[in-house]
Amino acid sequence: MSQMLARDDCLVLVVDVQERLAPAIADGSAVVERCRLLVEAARRLGVPVIASEQYPKGLGPTLESMRASLGNAPRIAKLAFSCAREPAILEAVRASGRRTILVTGMEAHVCVLQSALGFSAEGFRVAIVADATGSRRSESRTLALERARAAGCGVVDTEMAIFEWLERAGTDEFRAISPWIREGRVP
């Protein structure tokens, strides 16, 4: 992804940050905090957020801390691994009018990767937010990021996205969000 991220063209897709999955993720608490930081900044800056839940009957709902950060953002249950293959999610993404999707969540090598590849095939610009994405095994996460990059998806981190959305220091938005970045988490 060679272009900078513009907040008026981005959407954040939070994939499957769920109660029974998150504890099994390598460095899972850090992944969740980076997801929360990205989502809180997105909401503050007017970037739409959509969350998916893979088979919530089996994997439980979205983590409570993540639900708090999501606020009233839609949470859509799915059975397909790729969010792009779940009609309700695909329609919600299309209805947003945004052409760039930042994908984050769990697991990097399954639902995150398949969603990134699927939305890319649908004609969207896609980037995976590496530090806000995890798998049970770190090797699986690394392979997923390599495969996504080779397929033409971007790979960014949380701070890249937020600073590109902010564009400049000295604004009220920058002053509100910069403490979160310094702390590496939202209050």
Record field, number of beta strands: 6
Return residue spans where pLDDT drops below 50 for at least 5 consecutive residues: none
Supply the CATH architecture.
3-Layer(aba) Sandwich
Main β-sheet, spatial strand arrangement: 3-2-1-4-5-6
Looking at this protein, list some descriptive labels.
globular; 8 helices; Rossmann fold; alpha/beta; 46% helix; 187 residues; 6 strands
Please tell me about this protein's structure.
The chain has eight helices and six strands, in the order βαβααβαβαβαβαα. It starts with 9 loop residues before the first strand and ends with a helix. The mean pLDDT is 97. α1 runs parallel beside α3 (64-70), α1 (28-44) runs parallel beside α7 (158-166) and α5 runs parallel beside α6. It is globular. The chain has a six-stranded parallel β-sheet. 46% of the residues lie in helices and 19% in strands. It has 187 residues and is an alpha/beta fold. The protein has a single domain (10-180), classed as Isochorismatase-like (Rossmann fold).
Gist of the model:
The chain has 187 residues and is of the alpha/beta class.
Topology:
Elements (H helix, E strand, L loop, with lengths): L9 E6 L12 H17 L4 E6 L1 H4 L4 H7 L4 E4 L8 H10 L3 E7 L1 H14 L3 E10 L3 H13 L3 E3 L1 H9 L5 H12 L4
Parallel strand pairs: 1-2, 1-4, 2-3, 4-5, 5-6
Helix pairs in contact: 1-3, 1-7, 5-6
